[in-house]
Each structure stands twice: as C-alpha cells, then as structure tokens.
Amino acid sequence: MLEKFFKLSENHTDAKTEILAGITTFMTMAYILAVNPSIMAATGMDSGAVFTATALAAFIGTLLMAIFANYPFALAPGMGLNAYFAYTVVIGMGYTWQYALTAVFAEGIIFILLSLTNVREAIFNAIPMNLKSAVSVGIGLFIAFVGLQNAHIVVGGSTLLQLFSVDAYNKANGVEASFNNVGITVILALAGIIITGILVVKNIKGNILWGILSTWGLGIICQFAGLYVPNADLGFYSLLPDFSKGLSIPSLTPIFGKLQFKGIFSVDFIVILFAFLFVDLFDTIGTLVGVSAKADMLDEKGKLPHIKGALLADAVATTVGAILGTSTTTTFVESASGVSEGGRTGLTAVTTAILFGLSLFLSPIFLAIPSFATAPALVIVGLYMLSNVTNINFTDMSEAIPAYVCIIAMPFFYSISEGISMGVIAYVVLNLITGEAKDKKISALMYVLAILFILKYIFL
Predict the structure, then answer these.
(1) What is the pLDDT of residue 124?
(2) Which of 183, 278, 405, 458 could pair with 179 as two cysteines, CB 3.0-4.6 Å apart?
C-alpha cells in the first residue's frame, strides 16, 4: 500500500528511510511548539490554546503536503510571520489578534485561488531576486532582535537600547526585579545561544530543539539550587511542568474561529493582508525550490513538477490554521534536514505529521518552557535567514541600496511590512530616476506596488 500511494521505488527510497527522515524533520522543527505560543501570547492570546492550534496546523498542513503533492516537506506556523502578526500588527499597529487572524484567513483564501492558477508563480517571478533575498535577511534581523528582547539581553536605556543590567531593566519596566529572577535568566539565555551555536556547528540533528531543552534544563537546575526564584508578579514563573491536569490537550475554545470581519475593507487591512501575502509567497516558493534542489527533485528546466499541489497544501493549511487560531502556516526550510536523510516522498511528511499529532499530549512540557529558553532559537533562526545576504548583488548599487533599505527598515522600525514597503519604493524610484528601469524591465506589478505603498504613507 505504501509503495502504491507514495511511489517509493520510483523515487529511489524505501519505507525505513522515509520514516527516519520524517522523525529527523520533526526533531529540527519541533521548537515551533514552544516558540509560537510564546510569541503569540504577547498579543494576549491563550498560550495553551495557541499550542494546540500550532500542533494541529502543523499536523493538517504536513498531511496535506503528502496528499496533494507526495513531497517530503513539513508545514507549521512560520517564523517571521508569527513575529509580524504579534509585534507589528497587534502590538505595533494596535489591532486585535482577532483582526490579525482575519487577515491571515483572507490571505489563505486568496492563496487558494492563486494556487489553483499560475498567478502565484507569476507574482513570485515579478519581484527582483535581490529584493526577495533582502526580505529574508531583514526578517532574520527582526527575529533575532525579538529574541534578544524576549531574553532581556537588550533593554531600554539612555541610549534608546542597551545591554542588560538589572537597573536598566527596572527603569525601563518600572519594576523591582533582581538577579534571582531577571538577572539569572539573561545569563541562561546567553548560555543557551552558545549551546545552540555549538550544536549547530557540530551539525547535531534537532540542534535548535536540543538548545531550547538544554537551556530550560539549566534553568530548572538553577531553580532547585535557589539561583532562580519564581516571581509571578514580575512575570517569572516556575520552570517545572504542571502535570496536575495530566496529559490533557489544552482547549482551543479561547481562540478557535475568533475572526473579526469588521473593518476588513480599510486600507490598513489591505496593507496587513499584503504583507502576509508577500512574505508567505516568497518564503514558501523559495523554500520549496531550495529544498527541492537539494533533493534533486527539480526537472531539467529547474522547475518543481508538482509545485501547484504543494502551494495548494500551503494555502489550505494557512486558511485552516487561521480558523484554529494561529498565524500563517507555511512550508519549513527545516524540511531540508529530512531530505538530507533520504526523504523523497509524502511518507516522510506523514511521519512528521503523526509526530506533531502525538505532541498534542505533551502540552505541559512545551508550555513550561520559558521565553529565555526559546530566545536562543529566535537568534539562531535569524542567522539562518540572514545567510541569504550572500545572494544579494552588492556590486550594482541600484540593486544594493533598495535591498539595504528593506533590510534595515525591518528591525529599526520594528515592522516587516515597513521593510517590504520601503524596499519596493526604493527599488522603483531609484531605478526610474537613474534610468536603470528600462534595462532591467521592471514588472508592471512593481510599479503598482510602489504607487500603493507611496499612497499609504501619504494618506495613513
């Protein structure tokens, strides 16, 4: 049955290889089960419910990838997109998380329509390659910045931002914290970054997950030793898992189906929607093509044979994920770990999906992991995304300057969408004024986007 459905021999693989590859993929991306609830909780969402939504979205999305495309790729709520959801749309722009979920839902519907045609690929091809790489780099810096803040390594100070000190932290937050709560967690977060970095260098499977668990483990040791003293009033809780309710699955009720359609015809909603669309579009296709190239799945023209099915799985998963109560569900670049272990078919994806399903029963463990333990994951994921800077052509200043604007705008203005907007405007305006636009044959879509973004800054 496995042979017939997944075409194992045709893809030069076997069931054992596929299952091991699926386990490897899960190990490398299971960190999202701890990180996503931590990020989304900043919006006021129930972290337990977000955990359940995250696991279910990953389970459904990855299963759809196996059914629609028979590819070894796994899906889950994406890094960068969850940060944009929480820190830009909700915290930065002041919208409710229900409103942001509605934008994700609308994005999913649009993607379903685009995925059934060739429009999604056409849009992807219309954006200059340097700008695509710049978006990834900018998001990497933004995510790393969020991680450093979550761990309190970076705090507010007389110079706007500064390296942590207990005094600076207390002044910035108006509290009376001490070394035994905030201080020790900063040291643990720094240790976690070092530990995770070592695991990455040593190419240990599941390095990010092991880095999170190691940091958390050190924290528990510190709690038993009295170095870390929980203080719920200051937001520093016990690091021990709460098994008082057994291994029950946290209820989805607080966030399930909580969409807010009032105000969806505003310009702001369109801007938010486009940012989700833009980032997910390039993230998904870039991941699919990149990982497929690594697995030698591309045809002689460099195209992915069943990309339409893969894109459709991504789009449906995003729509379902929004209803469940989580940010955009997308194809994870960590799928490359399973591919490197020999995964070539949907059986790898099915294995990963089953493990995400089983993880639902481990919620007390994942929900006990503190933000200082997940911060190293954000910093290292930022590094992976930053590596795309090598794909930017810095010898051509008409390409380099817009890419640079896009990159620095995201962390400095604390907004992924601002980086995208400014990058597109800078690219079109700079190339028009210098006469480079004609030679580069800038697409009509880029002109339309630039005009829309300029109008946004004028009228909003």
Answers:
(1) 64
(2) 183
